[in-house]
Amino acid sequence: MNHYRWNILPPAPEKHLAATSGFSPLIAQLLYNRGLTEPAQLEAFLSADKRLAGDPSQLPDIEPAVARIYRALLSGETMAIYGDFDADGITGTAILVQGLTSLGGKAVPYIPHRLTEGYGLNITALENLHRQGISLVVTVDCGITALPEVKRANQLGLDIVITDHHSPLPEMPPAVATINPKRADSSYAFSELTGAGVALKLLQALFQNLGKEGQEEELMDLAAIGTVADMAPLSGENRYLVKEGLKLMNTTPRLGIGEIISQAGLTPGNLSAESISWTIAPRLNAAGRLAHAMTSYKLLMTESPQEARDLAVWLEEKNTERQKLTAKVWAIAREQIVAQGITPMLVAADKDYPLGIAGLIAGRLAEEFYRPAIVVRTGETVSSGSGRSIPEFNIIKALTECRELLSHFGGHSQAAGFTLPTKNLPQLQEHLARLATEQLADTDLRPQLDIDAEVALPDLSGDTFNTMQQLAPFGRGNPSPTFLSHRTEVVDCRTMGNGAQHLRLKLKQGGTVWDGVGFRLGSYLAEISPQLDIVYNLEIDSWGGKERLRLNMVDFAPAE
What three-state secondary structure class fits 76? Predict the structure, then answer.
């Protein structure tokens, strides 16, 4: 039995193939699968240039936001840039501080501590900022649901400008301006910007008003990191931001990024979106998960080579520590879930679960069991949790329906966080379990795997891989092309990695032999048969200083 539901995408019609006659049939199929059917669409997608960028004046509340910040610049007010503690919030904070400072502004960063302050605006922090002489707070990647916090700021005489991309509530906070492309009244063409992306658009609008158009392009490396780290779809404007940001990182990386590249063993000048998601973002996130996210902010902003090196070494150590802790806690949480019985909504709760990695654990549980999962760190009076979901279940919508039980919450359809009185936790579990049971009743709870095309392994030789790179950067919304090959012969297969968790294979078809790897498929070794139907991506293996193509196997089944 397949471990996924294989969904072979329909073949492109002859009309599309004729319109894309300059491409091979395989590339034409890949373009069709991504909804690119018009010549103008194709050109804009492949070039990923400024045509994909939206006009910042179309964002809601952009004019009052620019006016208030401009007034602060003129009067020499000190502004606080209040960002979230994840990579998106950190990079967005760095974008605004660096950009406003370049205009002569007094901008100071404020990133709350994940464990002691929690997500988003908090009243104590706002009161402290006000006492320090701050008169304007600009949020990054948070604030859209902070109604009581903004009301308290208003009482203090502290102005708030919100920049966020999370799902809004029906009532907007009473801020000077609330910039969010997901607002119901937004006329902005692209709603999937991240916190860093929205921060960059605010800065772009400010620069345009001051006759410094284009100056924000120097900060696209930060926007690219935030966009990929937050798993935003790499389509529309995000595609442009990431492509331009990668150019900067590959040609003139800032000191801190250069040191991460060095410490992690990446190849300078050869970074991709995958380099961000698998290497750079986890290291930036490690600081906020285990200590304080300000360390990652300092790494991005430093102009001292020695400080960049020291901070990168520290982050490398923290990331290793985070990996070990995640493996340990995941095993405990998984055991708890299995002991409780696999239900439509998975909930693991314990006083010893570290809040900094709760989202990672929830993500791994959701991935393995293909059900929405919540991991909660319980306290005597207050508990906090993180949830990750599947496409068939909107977790932020579910939490919104339970908002009377929660103190704070926020997030997206697939990822959310919350805080609540511990006494309300059983009731929350009951409500979420009911919602999941109702909504997933008729769902085949195996993840769907979209397959771009059925091909034979010999068809992938020659220039196929290089041609496919025209579609990069790959990520959510523009996945790496996925292929199905029938009846491949297994020449060799063995496990590798700690705990034999991965598979290494040699596969033969039509006289060609390919190396293959199946990450996290080691437990399926007994299902390997002499001939397999395999689903995979093509990737470059850089092991041992040599580069060669290999198959990254996503799923397989015995050949019929």
Answer: coil
What is each CA distance from 86 to 141, 404, 490, 508, in whole angstroms? Answer: 9, 26, 42, 43
Pairing of strands 373-377, 382-388: antiparallel
Strand locations in 365-501 (E): 373-377, 382-388, 408-411, 415-421, 448-451, 453-454, 483-496
Predicted confidence band of residue 18 (pLDDT cuts 50, 70, 90): confident
Residues ≥6 apart with Cβ < 8 Å to 412: 166, 167, 396
- How far apart are the two ends of the chain, measured CA to CA in Å? 11
CB 358 within 8 A of CB 385: yes
Mean pLDDT, residues 310-339: 96
Largest Cα separation within the chain, whole Å, is 75
DSSP string, 321-349: HHHHHHHHHHHHHHHHHHHH---SSEEEE
Q: Residue 187 CB: number of other CB atoms within 10 A? A: 12
Looking at CATH, the fold of the domain delimited by 56-240 is given as inorganic pyrophosphatase (n-terminal core) (3.90.1640)
Q: Are 26 and 464 in contact (CB under 8 A)?
A: yes
Of the candidates 68, 97, 61, 83, the residue with the CA atom closest to the CA atom of residue 159: 68
3-state helix, strand, coil in the chain (%, to 5): 45, 20, 30
CA atoms 449, 454, 460, 464: torsion sign: negative
Q: Is the pLDDT of residue 544 over 80?
A: no
Helices (H), 176-235: 195-209, 220-229
- The CATH label, of 3.20.20.300, 3.30.365.10, 3.10.310.30, 3.40.980.10, for the domain at 341-439 is 3.10.310.30
CA proximity to 59, closest of 220, 208, 249, 205: 205
Residue 476, strand partner residues = none
Rounded mean pLDDT of the chain? 94
What DSSP designation does 12 have? P
| Euclidean distance between CA atoms 195 and 12, whole angstroms | 36
Pair 205, 179: CB distance under 8 Å: no
The tokens of 179 are what? Answer: 């910039």
Q: What is the pTM of this model?
A: 0.90
Over its C-alpha atoms, the chain yields an Rg (Å, rounded) of 24
Residue for token pair 């929690």 = 118
What fold characterizes domain 5-11+448-558? OB fold (Dihydrolipoamide Acetyltransferase, E2P) (2.40.50)
